[in-house]
Amino acid sequence: MAPELLHERVDGEWSFIETLRHLVFATDAWVRRAVLGDPAPWDPLDLPNDGNSEPSIPCDREARPSLDEVLALRADRMTTVRQVLADLTDDRLAGRTTPVTEPGYPAPESFPVRRCLQAILTEEWEHRLYAERDFDLLQARPGGDS
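^ thats the sequence. predicted structure below, dont judge the formating
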């Protein structure tokens, strides 16, 4: 696929690159902040939901990073998730997070650890489906299979 198509939106939905940026944000929010307790886990390439304008989260919605930049960031976050899962015990999975009191997303409250991890799994699954759907549409366009 032509690299410029990775930045192209389909029917108003996020582009593939934006989707990867959002998955970095989801991991930063639910794993690094909520589960691991980092009050400010954000990377400038994080992409929160469109309605989330929390001022403590640095975000350049107009950034156009390369695929390699975003994949490196994703690889780092996936390593973090793998480590959290490797260290997970039944007691920890059944437990709750310690609230992070600094401003950010999610809000400063205690969450079931299971809920945080399910949020990541759901985000990964749903956004994969969106990306596959959009890739099919982009490739069907003239010049889309370059």
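Residues 113-140 form the longest helix (28 residues).
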